[in-house]
Amino acid sequence: TGRRVGGLPSSMKAVSQVLHRISLKNAITHTILVVINVIWASNALFGKLALNHISALTYVSFRIIACSPILLGLAFFRYRRDAIPKNRTDWVKLTFMGLTGIAGNGFLYMSGLALVSPSSVGVLQPMSVVFTLMLSLILKRENLRVLKIMGLISAIGGALIVLRIERTASFASSTGDSSWDTFLGCSLAITSFLCYAIYLILQKPMLDSYPPLTIIAWSITLGGIVPYIFMTIQYKRFWELWEAPWESWIGLLYGTLFSLALAYLLGLYAMANTTPTIVSAYGTLIPIIVAIESMIFLGEVPDWHDGVGGCLTVLGLILVIISRHQENQKSRDAKAFAQVQVESQRESDESRENSDEKSLELETVKTLDGSAKVTEEFVGLDELDENTR
Questions:
Q1: Are 184 and 65 spatial neighbours (Cβ–Cβ below 8 Å)?
Q2: Residue from 313, 269, 261 nearest 290 by CA
Q3: Which end of the chain is less packed: N or C, by CB atoms within 10 Å?
Q4: Residue 3: which of 388, 360, 344 has the closest Cα?
C-alpha cells in the first residue's frame, strides 16, 4: 500500500503532462479547422472566376489529375510499401470515399456554383452539419447531447441570419439567376454537402489504419476514375484551359493547391483528433468569412444581421466544442480510472505473490528443520544401539 501511495504524485504529474499535451493538440486542431474554412470560403469566389470560362467537369478533372500523382508519390516516398491499402475492403472504402467526397462533392458543388451566386450556395452550407450529425447518430458514431444540439442549432441559425433570404435573392437577381437555375444550383449544392458528410463519416475509422497523406492520396486517385474516363474520351475539353484567361487560371490553381490538396490533408489531421460533427460544424463559419471578405474586398457595409448572426454562430461553435470537451474528459477519466484499477490489481498480485513466496520459504525451512531433527534422532538411536551391543 505504501508503494502505491508513494507512486501517486508521479502518476498525477504524468497525467498533468498528458492533459497539457491534449489541450495543446485541441488548440492546434481547432485552429486548423478555422484555416480550412477560410480556404473553402475563399474558394467560392475563386471558383466563380474559373467557372466563367471553364466547365465544372473540366475544373474537377484538372484538380484530380494534377493532385493525384503528386500526393501518391509523396505517400510512397514517405511510407514505402505501407502506403498500399492492406485488403480489398480498404480498397473499396477508399474508392467510395473518393467518388463521394472528392469527385462527387467537387463536381456537384462546382456545377451548382456555375448556376447560382456564391451567396446562394453559402446559405446552404449548414446543411453539411445536419447531414453529418444525422449520419453519425444513425450509425451510432456519436452520442446525442443536449449541449451539442443547442450549439448546432445556434450555429446554423446564425449562418442563416448572415446569409438571409433577402440578401441571397437580391444577389441572385443582380446576377441574372433564373428561378430554375437557382433551384437546380441549390439542389446540386445540397447533394454535394450530403456527399461530403458521407466522406467525413467514412474517413474517421480509416485513420486508425492509415496516415492522412495515404488516405487523401488514394481517395483522390481512386475517386478520379470517372474524370479519367471522361477526359480520355473528351480530351478536347482540355483545350478550353489554354484558351481561358489568367483570372480563370488563378481560380483553378487556387482550387487545386489550396481547396483540394491542402484543405483535405489538413482536414484529415483534424479528423484524427476530433469527430465528423465538429469538423462539419466549423462549416457554419463560411458565411461569416464570406461576409468579412465582402466587406474588405467589395466594400459592403455590415448591418445588425451580420453582427447577430456572427455572434450566434460563434456561440454555437463554443457550445459544440464544450460538449466535445466534456465527452473527452469523461473518456479520459474512465481510462485513467481503468489504468489505476489495473495498476492496483497488479500491485496486489505482486504483494500476494511475494507473500506466497515467503510462506513457501518458511514452510520449506520448517520442513528442512523437521527433517534435520528426525535425522538427528535416527543417528542418536543408531549410536545407542551400538553402545548397547
A1: no
A2: 313
A3: C
A4: 344
Query: Comparing C-alpha atoms, which of 63, 174, 164, 163 is closest to residue 116?
Result: 174
Please enumerate in sequence order all residues whose Cβ is within 8 A of that of 134, keeping only pairs 6 or more positions apart, or say none.
197
pTM for this entry: 0.68
Contact present, 218 and 79 (Cβ < 8 Å)? no
Collect all residues with Cβ–Cβ distance below 8 Å to 385 and sequence separation of at least 6.
none
- Helix ranges (H only) for 125-178 are 127-138, 146-162, 165-174
Residues 6+ positions from 229 with CB-CB distance below 8 Å: none
**In 3D, which of 273, 201, 230 has the Cα closest to residue 33?**
273
Residue 177 and residue 327 in contact, taking contact as beta carbons nearer than 8 Å: no
Give pLDDT tens digits along the chain (389 positions). Answer: 444 444 444 444 544 544 455 577 778 888 899 999 899 888 877 888 888 888 888 888 888 888 888 899 999 998 888 889 989 999 999 999 999 999 899 889 888 888 877 766 766 777 777 788 778 877 877 776 777 778 777 777 776 665 555 445 554 444 455 567 777 887 888 899 899 989 988 888 898 889 989 999 999 999 888 777 776 776 666 677 778 888 889 989 999 999 988 998 898 888 888 878 788 778 777 777 877 776 776 565 666 666 676 677 777 777 776 776 676 666 666 666 666 676 667 766 666 766 666 666 666 655 655 555 545 554 454 555 555 55
* Cell 446569409, located at residue: 163
| CA–CA distance, 175 with 167 (Å, rounded to integer) | 12
Number of H helices, E strands in the chain: 18, 0
